[in-house]
Amino acid sequence: MAAKAAEGKQLFEAGEKCLKTSMFKWTPDWEAAVGNFEKAGNCFKLAKEHERCAESFVKAAEAREKLNELYHAAKNLELAAQAYKDAKKFGDAVSMSRRACMFYRRHGTADAAASACEKGAAAAEQGGDLEGAFELTAELLSLWEDENKAHMMKQPVQKMIQLSARLNKYDKLIEALEMQAKIYQDSRLYGQLHLNVLSRLVVKIKQGDLVSAEKLFTDAVSSVNGFATSTEGAVSEELLKAADTRDLDALAVCVSKQTFTFLETEVLKIARGLVPADALKKAKATGGSSFGAAASSSSGPREKEGGSLEDAMSAVSVRPAVAAAAAAPHAAPASAPAAAAAPAPAPA
């Protein structure tokens, strides 16, 4: 290893010498520099001197860029990123992956750019840089969107959902879930789409936006294939009832249902976080059997409208009218029978 390190040092110094100019050498010898720096990087890699390996490949990438060889420059940056990752310098690894992705995109190599983004996001997450992982995943999604390759977006969207939830970026989480919903709709994966609707309801309730949550629910009942009669549809209605009436016991029983365990782990955590831990523990102990009693004892507006999914379709728009109708006295029938005519006097 020592011999390889010494060889790498000599090659690196030779590469730097190629970059120097003089009175009789007006421009750097980029081609010779590339060869020396790349060989130096490989020597340092074998010697397990990761930082010097990374530095060599960065120099090689800069020389390749000067030669307008963007693809090979990006390759060298990826090697530098891996070396920094091996050295546990995750921030530098993420920076190199970003640059590699940029070079690949400039070269027009979308698949290689996507691979660089994925590797960079993984390095950022491994190093605890969730923001960096989020940004690289967003760039990956942008790349596939620009390339019009929706079928490649499924895994990045799932990763974006996880990262948005972990960073409490709820608006971005909704955006990612909406992207996922479009993928499921286009692929006709209706079972997954039903779970996606439930996930979005959980997030909107977490944001305190019940109006938007009810609109989402009514739209799903009317337009999402099979949602109205699905288990997810019934659980979604229970969730909205509990949120509407601020019934924490009913909400705890609802989010304890098995259906929620099929959601993304981070979304499940949000759902379980809607209620205090003691209420959730009590709900789990009862196994959800108390939900019916808890929900029926409430007198919230959704109970007045009836409990079926079909009734919920018009819940947002007719809620004031329903309340007014409930408070008004019953009107007399429109056409009451005419009073019986008095009997004619008997003839004298």
Helix content: over 70%
Number of strands: 0
Unreliable residue runs: 288-348
> What portion of the residues fall into strands of 2 or more residues?
under 5%
Number of helices: 19
Mean pLDDT: 83
Rough shape?
elongated
Question: Element order, helices and strands?
Answer: HHHHHHHHHHHHHHHHHHH
Q: Classify the secondary structure makeup into a structural class.
A: mainly alpha
- Largest sheet properties: none
Straight-line N-to-C gap: 141 Å
Question: For the CA atoms, what is the radius of gyration?
Answer: 32 Å
Q: Topology, please?
A:
Layout: H1 2-19, H2 30-46, H3 50-66, H4 70-86, H5 90-107, H6 110-126, H7 130-146, H8 154-166, H9 170-187, H10 190-207, H11 210-223, H12 231-244, H13 248-255, H14 265-272, H15 277-286, H16 291-297, H17 301-304, H18 309-312, H19 315-327
Tell me what the structure shows.
The protein has 348 residues and is mainly α. The protein has 19 helices and no strands. The longest helix has 18 residues, at 2-19. The radius of gyration is 32 Å and the shape is elongated.
